[in-house]
Amino acid sequence: MAISMANQKVPAWACVVLGVWCLAATLKIMLPQSGAGHEGAVGLVAGPRARVPPHQPDSASSRDSTASALPPWALDERNVRIPRDETGAVLPSAERLRLLELKLGGVSNWAKDPWFGQRVSSAAVCKKESDLAEFGCPPKQACPGLYSHKVCLDNLPRPAPYGKRAPLRPDCVVYDFGIRAQPEFGLIMAESFGCTVHAFDPSPVTTQWFKANTEENAQKLHKLPNYHMHAYGGGGIDGEVELGTYDWGQVSILRYPPYTVDCVEERKRFEAAKANAKAAGHGPPNPFSFRCKIVPSHQAKTPLPVKTLKTVMAELGHTRLDVLKLDIEGSEFAFLEQAIDTSSLWGVAQLTLEWHHFTTDPRYGTGSSPSINALQTALSAMGLEVMSVNYFGGWPSDVLAFDQQKLELWYNVISLIRPRQ
Questions:
Q1: Is 243 helix (H, G, I), strand (E, B) or coil?
Q2: H or E stretch at 62
Q3: Count of CB atoms within 10 A of residue 365's CB?
Q4: Nearest to 95 by CA among 40, 53, 35
Q5: Sign of the torsion formed by the C-alpha atoms of 104, 342, 47 and 148
Q6: How far is CA 25 from CA 22, 42, 82, 267, 296, in A?
Q7: pTM
Q8: What's the number of CA atoms in the CB half-sphere (13 Å) around residue 325?
Q9: 198-257, pLDDT tens digit by residue?
Q10: Residue closest to 349 by CA, chosen among 133, 175, 177
Q11: In 10 A of CB 151, how many CB atoms?
């Protein structure tokens, strides 16, 4: 897509960049610089404790005065959030501008590395990585698809050998978002490491599986005092979202188009007409004379409860997480965006997630995902560095239903750690 300006074609993304730059400049003029002018960069990279030295007059009340100086329209958060710190106070303008730069540079690939979000960081130093199969998959057996999320064992409790149960370690807390009927990740963290595990999944397939308590792993989980299942998911809001039918009997935030085009039979007619015309010595038929079928599609949707990371941690009384795992069928984007805007990730030591449905920048091809780059650029600035990438660029969906919907969907599993200072 391009926009014509003075008979010149200007890419749409360039107009977005220009528009956001103007907005950033306006914000810089409008917002008072509460506190030292350099503390924004320090806070964004070094963490909340390093954000403001005690002698700086940048208390919560002074930050609130920053927000009160704005006109009402600038405080409208019905769709776009105002970035805030851990206390809920509006971030100083310097930090907000830098966060805006990180988001914009990442999503437009106006940056040093178009493959930043799917490239292992040299800062992510880990002596012992594990996909946890050594603790859950029987020796000399293959367990495909069950152990794809890697964690760094360096700072986790000492694990028990395969088949053994570790002593309880209440100081180790793990959140496992997205279970289906495959709870291996959370089961091992609870059983082999002794961590307190909170699992979250609102999908009917998970609710029925866990309630029935007939499958072996479900029975194990019900017996573990340190494993807790919650019938809600992760999202960018606190409330209900419509989740639709999806692969693996799961539900997803992904929406199908209401209609698709079926050209299979019409292509056959066109090729036959072309062959007949050639045999008769005529020119090829007019393709505009052939019409494909417009086919309605159907996707059952169900309103299901979701919560943000900030809300979940507050309700469960946690200020830090040893591991946060996300496999939430496309909702990871909204979930992480909200967590970044509310400064909710500073207490997360490790993050392992499956990216779903991400796009690719046509200028750079495989692995250059604007949607992932935007988030990973902000995550890295906040101290979470890429430790592991399952496949550079990810893998495509092989589901016929998605192909029929003309949806080209890509996936990847990436793990991040917060290097110890």
A1: strand
A2: helix 60-68
A3: 11
A4: 40
A5: negative
A6: 5, 21, 16, 53, 46
A7: 0.84
A8: 28
A9: 999 999 999 999 999 999 999 999 999 999 999 999 999 999 999 999 988 889 999 999
A10: 175
A11: 29
